[in-house]
Amino acid sequence: MKPSPTPLADDYLDKDDEISPDASADRKFITALARGFEVLRAFKPGSGALGNQELSRLTGIPKATVSRLTHTLSELGYLRHLKAEGKYEPTESILALGYAVLSNMLVRQIAHDPMMELAMQHKVSVGLASRDRLSMIFVDVCNSRSLGTLRLEIGSRVPMPNTAVGRAFLAGVQEQERDFFYERFAQRLGRSEWSTLKGRVEEAIAQVEDRGFCYLEDEWHHGMRAVGTPLASMDRQTVMGMMCGAPAFVVDREQLEGELGPRLAYLCRSLAPMLR
Fold this sequence. Notes:
Blueprint: H1 10-15, H2 21-24, H3 31-41, H4 52-59, H5 63-75, E1 79-82, E2 87-90, H6 93-103, H7 106-122, E3 125-132, E4 135-143, E5 157-159, H8 164-172, H9 175-189, H10 191-211, E6 214-217, E7 224-232, E8 239-247, H11 253-271
Antiparallel strand pairs: 1-2, 3-4, 3-8, 4-5, 6-7, 7-8
Helix pairs in contact: 3-5, 4-5, 8-10, 9-10
C-alpha cells in the first residue's frame, strides 16, 4: 500500500522558525530588522495582497508592530499599499535582493543548460533547490513546454521531508545536521506522525547512498513521480538538492529509476566542484 500524503502547508513550514529566544537575547541581534524580513516572507506565490491583521496572524508579530513595519517597508519601496483594500503587496524592488543571489550562483548558471536538455527531452520538470528553513526553495526550474500540470517556478517552496528534492537534501547533509532537522520535524508533526514519516525519509536516504538518487511517488502530490539527488560540496558544508519529476501519466517509474535518476546523479556529481 502506498503511503498517504502528509499535509505540510507553508504555514507549518514557518511556524517553528519564528525569532528564537536565543537570537532575541543577542545584543547584536536587531529584532526590528528580523521582524521586517518576517513580514516580507509572509507573502507567498499566489497569496495575493495581505492586510496587517493577516500578516500578524501569519508571523505571530503583534498587529501594532506589523502596522509600523508595513508602513516602513512601503516607504522603502518594498511593499505597495493598496489603500482601497487596506492591504499590501510586494513590489518589484524585492526582486533586486534575490537577483543578486541568483546571478552570482555559479552552479546554477552551469547547471541550467543540462537541466533544460533533460526537461525538454523527457517532458519533465527539473529543479535545483536550496534549503529554506524546513522547506526547499527552487533557485532554478526547467519545465517541459508540454507539461501542463503542477509546473514549478523559481521561488516555489516545497516541504523538505516528503518531497524527492527535500529527502535528497537530507541525504546530503552531515548526520548531526540531519538530526537537527529530525527534531524540528518531530516538534511540528508530533512524535507519532513523524516516526511514520521518518521511516520513508530513511529509506530515501538509503537509496541515495546505494544508487545516488531516491524515488518518490504519491506523497507530496497524488499522481506525481520524482527522483531526487543531493548536490553537495566536497566538504559537505554546502548542500542543495536536484529533482526530476512529472505526473504519472507522463513518465513511468522504470524510466525515472532506470534512466533519469542515474543521469541526475551524474549531473550533480559533475557540478559538485562548483559549490563552495
